[in-house]
Design brief:
Keywords: Acetylation, Coiled coil, Cytoplasm, Endoplasmic reticulum, Isopeptide bond, Phosphoprotein, Repeat, Ribonucleoprotein, Signal recognition particle, TPR repeat, Ubl conjugation. Its main location: cytoplasm. This is Signal recognition particle subunit SRP72. GO terms for molecular function: 7S RNA binding; ribosome binding. The protein has 32 helices and no strands. By secondary structure, the protein is mostly helical. Among the domains are: about 110 residues, Serine Threonine Protein Phosphatase 5, Tetratricopeptide repeat (Alpha Horseshoe), CATH 1.25.40.10; about 80 residues, Serine Threonine Protein Phosphatase 5, Tetratricopeptide repeat, CATH 1.25.40.
Length: about 675
């Protein structure tokens, strides 16, 4: 009895210690006391519950879940349902957490809160929205603001990922979290300018809220603002301001935020900006998308987009095997998605396997008819790249839902015209016109009058037929147009012009329907038209100059008369006594007296021949005779009289008489000659 009493006293002391530590938030110390209590009574339900709570508070979710699973007899689902579901939720076992919540006999407020979080992680946004609405309606406590924030996050997710137009929840955007979520919803709707204003407001509210706390530093504020700035950069990217977006993205990365999801999204967005450029930077950024825990922070569509970009980056960096592996994995996860098969086709085209790429796309189009249109457009593009325009036309014409579209008709007619297949081009026009006729026949005339697209197609068909000499077919189209609108003078004029080539009498009859010249008088200001900005001819205004203007004009004329002509510069060696060479403006080679340059540079020295012999007389080698006589310009036509050894050079090209070649040049020439001899 005494031992039992001592044990009870010890347990009471330990419980008081647990209570005190719990109130102080010292759960590590509380855990030690709880373990001592369990040594006294290992099946104490309250002690086990306290131990699980201490472990959860310390972040030991796996250990806490292990205790729950090993004491199932004592800790029934009714007793420990919330703690078990919460541990599973924090360990990212979301499906298990959902089952635990649904199996609980009593749905407490705590379980409902957790249920909303679980549904959000499972991306069941409609159910999540209903759960939070129920919570807000039926609970009144200090967590109301957090619930409203979560509710706005659900609406933003619906707008972004499911393209659902969000309803106005009537929430007062008093916190930066609510402003941020509202901005995300606006981005999902494509209202980028409004979203940017909301984000700016969110930034302002965030700064105000955090600056009130004296313990918060500027670095802490910037870290909290990182997600807002990341969304701002995303809007800039969507608006085409890629340089500004890239700068802001890199600023956020330099802050090294702890949110791996934010870093992964920013890195992915930078990769999309880089595309096939700056691939080394993209390779570095890919590492951020592979961080641990990223898969639990992002939605399925975000993770899928990252994987697509990894496959594209592998293609751009010529990692063909890696590209095929990633795209095949993506295709197995989402068999109906277009991008994986398009990436595979692009990789095959880079490897010059165009036929294989077309076959791959054709197989996908056959298996998934709903997505066949986009695939066939890609196939047609590949065929055009190969030069198979006719085959491309056949593929395009097989897309039934696009056959009547003006863009498709225009593309097909252009391609057939390039191939000079006029009959097929006219057939394209005919099929499109027939489609509109059948469509309009199925509608009531009051509800849907003649479509302007239909009439424009008929007009384009008529113009095309006239251009290619199909006058009779064009006339029937023009008559149809005129029948639809008898007041259309332009169509009538075209019709008369066409008939004048086939049936002049009919053209004369139709010309009576043209309005008379009196009724066609147009109120046009001819002077204003001629003086307009786009006029090719502008008529000068006539009229005499009056008074001051006339004197001004005369004064300008006098000034012009007084201007003197500037004297030209003369060469430095100009001699007024010598007649200038009339051929001085011609290049040296084109002058009549030019005899070409001698190969030897020693013109005035000993020439070739036997040793000691000379080619000229001693009088010609006497420098005193040539130095005393001034050089003169040669007369026109006197080039034949100039000897090969003469040192007389035309003006502006003179050198000192008899200037010998340098010793260095002679040595170089000898070296070259000796090499040539070998």
């Amino acid at each position: 009895k005494m031992a039992a009493a001592a044990g009870a006293a010890a347990a009471a002391g330990l419980w008081s210690e647990v209570n005190r530590c719990g109130q102080n938030g010292d759960f590590a110390r509380a855990l030690k006391s709880v373990n001592k209590i369990l040594q006294i009574n290992k099946d104490d339900v309250t002690a086990l519950q306290c131990k699980i709570v201490c472990l959860i508070q310390n972040g030991n979710f796996k250990e806490a879940l292990g205790i729950i699973n090993t004491h199932t007899k004592v800790l029934t689902s009714d007793v420990i349902a919330f703690e078990k579901a919460y541990c599973e939720y924090r360990l990212n076992r979301i499906e298990s957490a959902l089952k635990t919540i649904q199996s609980a006999s009593q749905q407490t407020d705590k379980l409902k809160e957790l249920y909303g979080q679980v549904l959000y992680r499972l991306e069941r946004y409609d159910d999540c929205l209903a759960a939070y609405r129920d919570l807000i309606r039926n609970s009144q406590d200090e967590y109301e603001e957090e619930r409203k924030t979560n509710l706005s996050a659900v609406v933003a997710a619906q707008s972004t990922w499911e393209k659902v137009v969000p309803e106005d929840l009537g929430l007062r955007e008093a916190t930066y979290e609510l402003c941020y979520n509202s901005a995300c919803a606006l981005i999902g709707q494509g209202k980028l300018n409004e979203a940017m204003k909301k984000l700016q407001k969110a930034e302002e509210l965030c700064r105000q809220s955090l600056s009130e706390d004296s313990d918060v530093t500027e670095e802490d504020i910037e870290a909290e603002l990182a997600i807002i700035h990341g969304q701002m950069a995303y809007i800039m990217q969507l608006q085409g301001r890629t340089e500004d977006a890239l700068q802001l993205y890199n600023q956020i990365i330099k802050l090294k935020p702890t949110d791996v999801g934010l870093l992964a999204v920013i890195a992915n967005n930078i990769i999309t900006i880089n595309k096939d450029q700056n691939v080394f930077d993209s390779k570095k950024k890919v590492k951020l998308t592979n961080a641990e825990g990223v898969e639990h922070k992002l939605s399925k569509k975000q993770l899928q987009a990252i994987e697509f970009n990894k496959a594209l980056l592998a293609m751009y960096t010529n990692q063909a095997d890696q590209c095929r592996k990633l795209s095949a994995s993506l295709q197995s996860q989402s068999p109906e998605h277009l991008l994986p098969v398009l990436i595979q086709a692009a990789q095959l085209c880079r490897e010059k396997q165009h036929a294989k790429a077309v076959g791959l796309l054709q197989d996908f189009a056959d298996q998934h008819p709903a997505n066949a249109a986009e695939i066939k457009l890609t196939m047609a593009q590949l065929k055009i790249a190969q030069g198979s325009v006719t085959k491309a036309c056949m593929i395009l014409r097989s897309i039934e839902e696009l056959q009547h579209k003006p863009g498709m008709v225009s593309a097909l007619v252009t391609m057939y015209s390039h191939e000079e297949d006029i009959d097929s081009a006219i057939e394209v026009f005919t099929q499109a016109i027939q489609w509109y006729q059948q469509y309009q026949a199925s509608q009531t005339r009051a509800a849907n009058p003649k479509s302007p697209v239909h009439l424009s197609l008929i007009r384009e068909a008529a113009n095309f037929k006239l251009k290619h000499g199909r006058k009779k077919e064009a006339i029937s189209d023009l008559e149809e147009l005129w029948k639809q609108n008898p007041k259309d003078v332009h169509t009538l004029a075209q019709l008369i012009s066409a008939y004048s080539l086939v049936d002049p009498e009919k053209a004369k009859v139709l010309s009576k329907h043209l309005p008379s010249s009196d009724t066609m008088s147009l109120k046009v200001d001819v002077d204003a038209l001629e003086n307009s900005h786009g006029a090719t001819y502008v008529r000068k205004k006539a009229g005499k100059l009056t008074g001051d203007n006339q004197q001004k004009e005369q004064g300008q004329g006098e000034v012009k008369k007084k201007k003197k002509k500037k004297k030209g510069k003369l060469p430095k060696n100009y001699d007024p006594k010598v007649t200038p060479d009339p051929e001085r403006w011609l290049p040296m080679r084109e002058r009549s007296y030019y005899r070409g340059r001698k190969k030897g540079k020693k013109k005035d020295q000993v020439g070739k021949g036997t040793q000691g012999s000379t080619t000229t007389g001693s009088s010609e080698l006497d420098a005193s005779r040539t130095a005393s006589s001034p050089p003169t310009s040669p007369r026109p036509g006197s080039g034949a009289a100039v000897s090969a050894t003469s040192n007389v050079i035309p003006p502006r090209h003179q050198k000192p008489a008899g200037a010998p070649a340098t010793k260095k040049k002679q040595q170089q020439k000898k070296k070259k000659g000796s090499k040539g001899g070998w």
